[in-house]
What does this fold into?
Amino acid sequence: MYISLTIMGSSLSVVSLGMLAPLMSLIFKEPGIGGQNILKKIPGGDLLGQELVRLVNNNQQMRAVLICCVLVIVSIFLKNLLLYLSSLLSVPVRSSIIIHLKNDMYAKVLSLPVGYFSEQKKGIL
It folds into this structure.
């Protein structure tokens, strides 16, 4: 569960800001970026690209920009939510590992003979 949430959160972080330039190139009709080709590669991108082109052709660029902004904000929110849930799942695992390490170290110290705790240094001088 942790791994899948982390992978989905990371992929959304790449997509959220990476899609901003192609979407804006569609709206402002900049030929260099090729936003429609990139949008065709993601699921539902064809519909989004067609809707943005229709809005631009009807002189509703502000509405198209609003759709792009909402899309980016929603994807960033989902990215943060997924990464928060993945860290929420990993905290109990990390805590239990630390507790087990401390208990093992405590058991090791208790099993050592009393002579081990003299004032002389142990190991290489």
Q: What stands out?
A: The mean pLDDT is 79. Residues 61-111 form the longest helix (51 residues). The CA atoms of residues 28 and 93 lie 48 Å apart.
